[in-house]
Structure formats: C-alpha cells, structure tokens
Design brief:
The complex is a heterotrimer. Chain A is mainly alpha-helical. Chain A has one domain (7-239). Chain A has helices at residues 2-25, 29-54, 62-80, 87-106, 111-131, 133-136, 157-178, 182-192, 194-199, 204-230, 240-253, 258-275, 282-296, 301-313; strands at residues 142-143, 148-149, 152-153, 232-233. In chain A, the strands form two sheets. Chain A has a two-stranded antiparallel sheet with strand order 1-4. Chain A has a two-stranded antiparallel sheet with strand order 2-3. In chain A, a hairpin with a 2-residue loop joins strand 2 (148-149) and strand 3. In chain A, 59% of the residues are buried. Chain B is an all-alpha fold. Chain B has one domain (2-276): ABC transporter involved in vitamin B12 uptake, BtuC (Orthogonal Bundle). In chain B, strand 1 and strand 2 form a beta hairpin. The N and C termini of chain B lie far apart (54 Å). Chain C folds into two domains: 4-79 and 170-259, 3-Layer(aba) Sandwich (Rossmann fold), CATH 3.40.50; 91-164, no CATH class. Chain C has helices at 42-49, 72-77, 95-101, 111-115, 119-138, 154-167, 184-199, 211-217, 235-239, 242-259; strands spanning 4-13, 16-26, 31-35, 57-62, 65-66, 80-82, 172-176, 203-207, 220-225, 228-233. In chain C, the strands form two sheets. A six-stranded mixed beta sheet of chain C has the order 6-7-8-3-9-10, with helices on both faces. In chain C, strands 2-1-4-5 form a four-stranded antiparallel beta sheet, covered by helices on one side. In chain C, helix 3 crosses helix 5 (119-138) and helix 5 packs across helix 6. The chains are: A mainly alpha, B mainly alpha, C alpha/beta. Chains in contact: A-B, A-C, B-C. The complex binds adenosine-5'-triphosphate and magnesium ion. Magnesium ion binds at residues 42-43, 85 of chain C.
Chain lengths: 314, 290, 260
C-alpha cells in the first residue's frame, strides 16, 4: 500500500519542517534551550508511546533509564576517557541490557503489580545514583564534560538544539515504522488480549520484553542528551517524580500517538517555565492543570483534536 | 539483643504507618478499583493540620480531631472533584489524575506551611521507655496502639455495620451491588472519607517521631503502595501484614546492612515476594478465565 | 493418521474435577463435535488442549508429538488454532489487522527489520494483506476491512475470530460456540463455512449448542457431562442415545419448546 508509506514519511517531514522553522525563529539561547528540552523529553516519551500506548504495559520507573543514560554521559568520559559523543550509545547498551535482564521477571506481573515493580526498579536506580557518592557525586550531581569536535567545544545552545532535534526525528521515524509491521501489530494485539495474541502464535513475554527494552533505550539516549546539553547531571533526573512526569507526558498528549508524545512533552516542559511567574503557587497550579486536562481529555490531546476535526469536517 | 529489639521496635512503629497507608489504599481500591496515589498526602495533612492548630493554641485532642476532619473533607473533595468526573477513564488515566491531585496537595501545603520541617511534642512524655536495654519512645506505643485501634475499628465497621456490608458487597461485585440497590456514590464517598481519616490518624500519631513537611506524602504513598502489593492488593489483612513486614525489613536492614540502602532493600524484598507470589502474600488468586 | 489425540485428560479447580479422564481424537478433513450441558467442561477441554491450562493428568498429542504443557504460542506454530466462546478479539484494531495478527508466524518478523522497515517488510505485508483479504471474504465480512473490531456486532466478531484463526494456517481448528448469537440465516452460512474448512483437509473440533448445526455437519460426536465422556458416536447414534437424551438433549429440547 503506497499511501501508507508516504503517510509515515510525510509525518517525519512535517516534523522536520517544524523543527527547522523553530530553530530559525527562536530568538535567543533561552528559547533554544527550552526547545531542546522539549525534543529530549519527547524522545524519552516516544519509548513510552510504544510501551504504554502500543503494548499496553505501564512503567512508572522510566526515569531510572533516563538516569542511567545521563550518568553514562557524566561518568564514562571522566573515569574511562570515553569520547563524550560515544556515551549515548554505550549508555543505551547498558540500559537495554539492564531492561533485558530485569524485564523477564518483571513483565510477568500485570497492571498495578507491574506498576509497582517498575516503580521499584526506577527507585533503586535513583537510590544508587544518589548514594554512590564516590562515583556519582551524590545528591549534588556531577559535571558532564563537553564534547570537543575538531578542536571546537560543543557548548552552544544551538548545537544541542540541532543534535537533539535530529535524535528526535530519527526516534520518531523508527516508532512510526513499527506501525503496520508484524512487530507493531503484535504489540497492539497483546495490549487488547494477551490470550488472543498467544493463540495467534505471539510469544507474549518476548514481545513485552522487546517493547520494554526499546523504551529503556529511548529513555537512556534522552538522558545522555540531557546530560550532555546541560553540562551536568543530578539524581533528580531519575526520581519517581520524573518517571511520573514522563508517563504524564505520554498520556497527556495521547498515549498511542507520536505527535501526542511531542505535544505532551512540550506542555510539561513549557508549563513550569510559564508558571515560574506564579512562584510559590507553581506546584499547586501544575497539579490542578494535570487533573483538569486528564478529566476532560482522558485519552489525551491528540485523540481529542482528531475527534474535533472529524466533527468539524463532517 | 538490645540492638535487635531496638530495630524491631523502630520497624514496627514505622511499619504501622505503612500499614495504615496500605489499609487506606485497600479501602479505596476494593470499592472502586482505583489506586489512589494521593493516599500519602492524607498522612501529611494529618500531621500538618495538627501542628498548625496546636500552634494556634488549641489543645492536642481538639487539634487532632480537626486534622482528621480536614483530611476527610479533602478525601471527599478528591472523589467529587477529581475521581467521579473522570468516569470510565482508563486505569492509567485515573492513576495520573490521583498523582495530579497529590502534586496539587503538595503545592497547597507548600504555600500554606512553607518548605521547612514541622513537629509536635510527643503526646505523653519525652522520656523513652527502657525495655531489655532498648530505648523505645513513648510515642511509638501510641503509634502501634493507635494503629491496632484504627484497624480494629475498621474491621468492626466492615464486618458489623450495614455500611460495611455495602462496602464489602461493592468490593465483591460492583454491578451486583448496584442492582440490589446499594448507592454506589455513597459507598465511594465513605471509602474516600474513611481512607482519608485512616491516613490522617497515621500522620497525627507519627509526626512527633518523624516530623512532617509538605513533601512527605510521596514516599509514604510509595511505601504504602508497596506494602499493599506485598500483602496482596485488596486484602485488608494483607495490607496490615505487608506494612509491618516492610517496616521491619527497612529497620533491620538500616541497622545491620546500610542505612543509605534501607529503602532499596525494602523494595527488593517486595520484588522478591511478588516474583514468587505474583498476587502478594494474601492476595486472591486470579485465574484468567477465558 | 490422527491429527489431534487427547487421552485420559483431567484437570481440577479447587478440588472440583472439571475434566475427568476425557479422551477424543480427530482426523484431517473431519468435523468432531463436542457437546454437553452448560458447565460440562467443553471450554475447559479447549483451554487445556490449546495450552492455556496445564492438565493435572493425561496425554495430548498433535501429529504424534506430546504437547501437554506447551505454551499456546508454541502450539500455534505446530498448527493448532482456536476461537473463543467469550471473544478474545483485538477490539481496538481494524478487522483486517486482526486477521493480519494471525499471520504472525507466517511472516519473517525481525524486530530490527521492522524498526528500520527493510524492503522485505513491505513485500511480506503485501502477501499477508492479500491472504487476509481473502479470509475476510471467506467468512463474509468483505467491505468492513477497516472497521474497528470493537464497533462490530457479536456475530461478525465470531466470524472474525474464525478468519483470524485460519490465518495461522492451522492443521487443527477448534471452534467454541461459533454460532452463539447468530440468526438462522447466518447459522446456515456458518455450517457451510465450517464444512468447507474441513474439506480443505483440516481437522475441526466444534463445541456448539445449536443441535441442528451439530447434527448436520459433524462426522462424529463426543458428549461430555460433568467432566466425563458419557457417549461418543455418529450423529444418528447420539440422537437416539438414551443417556444423552436424559443428560442433555432432552433438557435442551424442553428448553427450546419452552422458548417457542
Ligand atoms: N479457571 C477456572 N477456575 C475455576 N473453575 C473453572 C475454571 N474454568 C472452568 N471452571 C469450572 O469448570 C466447569 C466447566 O466449565 P466450562 O466453562 O468448561 O463449561 P462449558 O462446558 O464450556 O459450559 P458452557 O456450555 O456454559 O460454555 C464449570 O463448573 C466451571 O465453573
Ligand atoms: Mg463453554
């Protein structure tokens, strides 16, 4: 079906258009940094689009992998002399291997039990990052060395804008690719009925594991980019609240959709920036907004918008 | 020996708080299938309001009653304003709503009480009681006794009153309960109110020992959630057992292994149990019938 | 040679024996019906054979190989597929995607290949779509390929499950009450469909309460009651078997008379 193919490519092209336009328009370093954060968190959230939205498995510990990626960017160059630009790959490998090892037993659990198990996993990672002061600098975090390419140190906000935007585009392209393949269908099948899926020949636990590893790798790469672009990492990036924020980003935008992941991340990155004018009331307003949005748009922004346009064009 | 006893006392004390949080989880979960992540905030509210009211010069008893009252109002408001309007949203959505509520309450507490720690004086005396060489704070006995009393009350409410029967019937089969004329909305209100009261009681009792601040709720919710899972989601007895076990595991590993990793060890223990018994220690076996 | 053979299969739930020494066999090209009153253990037998439950005793063979205890996805690979009495449709997917899931084992699914959309993915997709489209036509759902399954009526979903099971290209197909909720016209079409599936050389095991359907297309019948086989034989023998009439057919006749 040729039109399906162009659909995917059109989405990526449209996204590229937005990214390039913003890169041009955004007036100063502050805005570029914010946009960079949006792309990075959107990348992490895309992993959850596959894990939660497609395969139907909740993870409340995703920030743990974000933390692994971030500290890979900090620790590997300072301790082992690895070039900083290689750290996202090594970090992704470590996260993927970790997810593979713990995923088998954890993913046997269902629903709330899976939620608590993933939550515990994220929590353990964050504890290690906080407590192994000798390695990680403890609660204060540590510096991330800047990559140097051809004698130029990569510290410009615009450089990181383009690197993170390109990573997001690649990440989005891969997730969109899954749609309409054997793997993509198997994910959605096991979300709708595990029994039905297994009778169709799908190895349910293996498929879940793949989605889990994929989500871990996405979060890890995002974490590395976060560390590299900020120039420092803290254990907060692996905290439970960060995990919750990632899941909220995914569900807020619409857990099934790639655009939803990006919109949800944009909302949760931008809101605190806007809310800083409210000073002490920031947390309170953030909570209220999350509650109100989830009540009125329970399946997220993108499905609601799609519904609206359908109704208008009918 | 004295050391071990000391750790056990600490473990049972802190475990009692986890048990009460887990009990609150269970009450709401049984009636609605909802996991209320704002459960820990009730503990925070209980402690905070007591601190505030005694600071205004109210006697401790009145302050405690006031704190439970405020917490119940908040619990009912959560149901009416946040949970009921969500209707039939998916479980993940509802979980995020309750997380949103907990962020909101934390934000409100920060505005009202600031970011510093607050405490109240122990209710009885500041002198610890010596048992076989272990120094146990007098307040610890209140926490343990209070937990026992609260859970007994809870049990009587469930087993011996009409309201309790309605709650249990709803827990067993929501549709059938509605068909026999049980008012679902009233059951939910009671569940949220009762759950808030249980949390507040834990907060009031434990604040003299652990102090309280605007953000204690998150960690307590996590521990309470883990305890409820450990015991088996949905079983009140399991919630109590899970809470106490978690508290003991934590205190013993803090004492003998590493205080930095006491939380890690508690969670690992929960993990291990869940892997062996995927429905928790006392949870109902659920066979997927097709 | 027998395709599927179960021998002395037993399973208990909390002390209650849901199956007690049940045996049957079915050959390629044959329709074997399993009938019996509600709660007799028919669905449980399907669940045991298809690997969802582990039997407490007995032996099950597929093409001469022991299969008890193997997980369902392995059995699917060995040529066993089934439908469900209480549907296990992928409700949020389209009809065609539901059937395409059945092609899972017929496709060379490499995770990385799918992620990077290697050219072979598109080629395989084309083949699979063609096959899935044929199956949708075969069960009479053409024109609804891109409808979301959750929005379709009950009877359509039963046929969708058959198409989905056929997509796995099974040697043995087990149907659990495929005619439930169908009108008489649909039931007649279903009878023709089931017969044609057997005539393709597949072994069909059919659980059904609609006796007209059962009697018209079955080659042999096994009657279960309270977890035990109480009779087996050709349709004509079963119809006149006193024990069966007593335990099941009589009651069923009375019920139908009462309803009419
Ligand atoms: N997972 C299970 N746990 C406990 N009991 C079960 C389970 N599955 C089936 N049973 C019991 O086994 C017996 C047989 O049930 P089964 O569903 O196999 O009957 P059936 O012949 O398919 O009936 P029907 O015609 O109503 O579909 C029943 O008593 C049922 O309650
Ligand atoms: Mg049945």
């Amino acid at each position: 079906m040729p039109h399906r193919l162009s659909d995917r490519h059109l989405s990526v092209l449209a996204l590229a258009g937005v990214v390039i336009a913003l890169g041009w328009i955004l007036p100063n370093a502050y805005f570029l940094r914010i946009a960079t954060l949006v792309w990075i968190f959107a990348l992490a959230t895309l992993g959850l689009t596959v894990l939660i939205g497609q395969a139907g498995q909740v993870s409340l510990g995703q920030a743990g992998f974000l933390g692994v990626g971030a500290y890979a960017a900090a620790i590997l160059p300072t301790r082992y002399g690895l070039p900083p630009l290689a750290t996202p790959f090594v970090g992704a490998f470590v996260s993927g291997a970790l997810a593979f090892l713990v995923g088998r037993p954890i993913l046997r659990l269902k629903g709330h039990y899976l939620a608590i198990a993933t939550l515990g996993l994220g929590f353990l990672i964050s504890l290690v990052l906080t407590n192994e002061v000798g390695w990680t600098g403890g609660p204060d975090g540590m510096q991330v060395p800047r990559p140097v390419v051809f004698g130029v140190s990569l510290s410009q906000p615009s450089t990181w804008y383009w690197i993170s935007a390109a990573s997001l585009l690649i990440g989005a392209w891969l997730v969109l690719n899954l749609d309409g393949t054997t793997t993509g269908r198997a994910f959605r099948a096991l979300r709708d009925s595990e029994v039905g899926a297994s009778v169709m020949g799908i190895d349910v636990s293996r498929m879940k594991l793949r989605a889990f590893v994929l989500a871990a790798v996405y979060a890890s790469v995002a974490g590395s980019l976060l560390g590299l672009s900020n120039g420092f990492v803290t254990p907060d990036q692996s905290s439970f609240l960060q995990s919750v924020e990632l899941v909220t980003m995914s569900v807020l935008g619409g857990a099934h959709s790639v655009v939803g992941a990006i919109l949800g991340s944009a909302m949760l990155v931008l809101l605190p920036q806007v809310l800083t004018v409210m000073q002490d009331y920031e947390t309170l307003v953030l909570g209220a907004i999350v509650v109100v949005v989830m009540i009125f748009l329970p399946s997220g922004l993108v499905p609601a918008l799609v519904d609206l346009t359908k109704r208008l064009t009918r | 020996m004295a050391e071990l006893l000391q750790y056990i006392a600490t473990g049972i004390t802190i475990g009692s708080v986890y048990a009460l949080v887990a009990l609150g989880f269970t009450l709401i979960y049984n009636c609605s299938g909802i996991v209320n992540f704002a459960q820990g905030e009730f503990v925070m509210i209980g402690g905070m309001v007591t601190v505030a009211l005694t600071a205004y010069g109210l006697p401790l008893e009145a302050a405690a009653v006031g704190a439970v009252g405020v917490s119940i109002v908040v619990g009912i408001a959560i149901y009416i304003l946040a949970v009921a309007p969500a209707g039939r949203a998916s479980p993940v959505t509802v979980i995020i709503i309750t997380i949103g509520v907990s962020i909101f309450l934390r934000g409100a507490a920060q505005v009202l009480f600031g970011k510093q720690f607050h405490g109240v004086k122990p209710f009885l005396s500041e002198q610890p009681v010596m048992i076989l060489g272990a120094a146990v704070q007098s307040q610890a006995f209140l926490v343990i006794g209070g937990t026992a009393a609260a859970s007994l009350l809870f049990w009587i409410l469930l087993e011996r009153t009409l309201i309790g029967k309605a709650l249990m019937a709803t827990a067993a089969n929501r549709l059938a309960a509605q068909l026999v004329g049980i008012n679902l909305r009233r059951v939910m209100l009671i569940a949220f109110g009762g759950s808030a009261a249980i949390g507040a009681i834990a907060g009031i009792l434990v604040t003299p020992i652990t102090l309280t601040s605007y953000d204690v709720g998150t960690m307590l919710a996590l521990k309470g959630f883990a305890a409820a899972m450990l015991g088996g989601m949905g079983s009140p007895l399991g919630a109590m057992a899970g809470g106490l076990l978690l508290g003991l595991a934590e205190a013993l590993s803090a004492g003998y292994l590493s205080s930095a990793y006491k939380d890690a060890i508690a969670f690992l223990a929960t993990f291990a149990v869940l892997l062996l018994a995927p429905n928790g220690l006392l949870g109902r076996r659920s066979v997927n019938r097709v | 040679m027998s395709s599927l053979r179960a021998h002395d299969v037993s399973i208990a739930f909390g002390g209650i024996k849901a199956l007690d020494g049940v045996g049957f066999d079915v050959m390629p090209g044959e329709v074997l019906a399993i009938i019996g009153p509600n709660g007799a253990g028919k669905t449980t037998l399907f669940n045991v054979v298809s690997g969802l439950y582990r039997p407490t005793g007995g032996h099950i063979e597929l093409d001469g190989r022991g299969i008890e205890g193997l997980p369902p996805h392995r059995l699917a690979g060995m040529g066993l597929s089934r439908t469900f009495q209480n549907l296990q449709v992928f409700t949020e997917m389209t009809l065609i995607d539901n059937v395409l899931v059945g092609r899972h084992l017929r496709e060379r699914h490499s995770f990385l290949g799918d992620l990077f959309r290697l050219p072979s993915v598109a080629r395989e997709n084309d083949t699979s779509r063609k096959r899935a489209g044929e199956l949708i036509r075969r069960v009479g759902l053409e024109g609804r390929e891109s409808a979301i399954a959750g929005t379709m009526p009950y009877g359509a979903l039963r046929r969708l499950e058959i198409a989905r099971a056929l997509a796995t290209e099974p040697q043995v197909l087990m149907l659990d009450e495929p005619a439930a909720g169908c009108n008489p016209f649909e039931t007649r079409e279903l009878a023709a469909l089931i017969r044609s599936i057997a005539d393709d050389g597949r072994a069909v095991v059919l659980v059904e309460h609609d006796m007209r359907l059962v009697m018209s297309i079955s080659d042999r019948i096994v009657v279960l009651d309270r977890g035990r086989v109480i009779a087996r034989g050709a349709p004509a023998d079963i119809r006149s078997n006193a024990t069966v009439v007593e335990a099941y057919l009589g009651r069923l006749g009375a019920e139908e008379a009462a309803r009419a």
